[in-house]
Amino acid sequence: MRLRRQIRQILGTCAVTAVTVLATAASARADEPSRFGLSVDAYAAPVYDRSVINQQTHQPVDGSRETVGLATVFNFDTLALGGVVDGMPGILGNGRLAVGGIAGWQPRLGSHRYQLMGELGAERFGDVGGSLLGTPGARDTWLDYVGARLGTSETFGSGPFELGAWLFVRKDLGEANVSGPSGNLPGGPDSTTDYRLGGYTAGVALRLGVRFDQKRAPADPPMEAEAESI
């Protein structure tokens, strides 16, 4: 009798444990992120720039500047792939444009998403040395770069809108030397200034965009699946 009672207790404990595990698994399944997703974000950022150096003064040109850009990210579970383009046109010179691809890890916790991305691309330096008094040159210089992005975003309610931020850094893979006109007064002697291109940049961007997800198909309850098989 005692042995039977112990067996019943063991079987009862196993049954409760199995139900608890199944309920926990079902809850976790419901909270799983969408299998496929797409986000498109516009962003703006102040940038700390050490990629253009005046060779005469050894000081950076536009050491603090602004940039605006667009990022598109596809995700498959926690794997994320996408592209970015950003820059700022220089009306009188010193324009900048960067085009790159990004890839990395994007886990989700509730409505929050976190991104840890690597970046590879090319950066265009346009009309270096242009100013109000000096006409910029017509030559553009491209340099390859590598970078990293650490980001977070949050989707609001059930709608597609999301808000987030990027912390990003970039390092040019090469260097180039260019010359630009100095800011001489009209009628004065012509002179040029030498610049070294290639260095690093860093910034913090505010992101605003939309996100679209493909939801997972809900699993059939065990009772319904059993009834269908019968």
Can you offer a commentary on this structure?
There is one protein chain. It is built from 2 helices and 10 strands; from the N terminus they run αββββββββββα. It is an alpha+beta fold and 230 residues long. It has a single domain, classed as Porin, CATH 2.40.160.20. It has an 8-stranded antiparallel barrel with strand order 1-2-3-4-6-7-8-10.
The radius of gyration is 28 Å
The helix/strand order is HEEEEEEEEEEH
The figure for the number of domains is: 1
Strand order of the largest sheet: 1-2-3-4-6-7-8-10
Assign the CATH architecture. Beta Barrel
CATH class: Mainly Beta
User: What is the strand content?
Assistant: over 45%
Task: Specify the biggest β-sheet.
Answer: 8 strands, antiparallel, barrel
Low-confidence stretches at least 5 residues in length (pLDDT < 50)?
Answer: 13-31
Find the CATH topology: Porin
Q: State mean pLDDT (0 to 100 scale).
A: 79
- What is the number of strand segments? 10
Return the structural class: alpha+beta
Counted by DSSP, the helix tally is 2
Helix content: 10-25%
The dominant shape is elongated
End-to-end separation in angstroms reads 38 Å
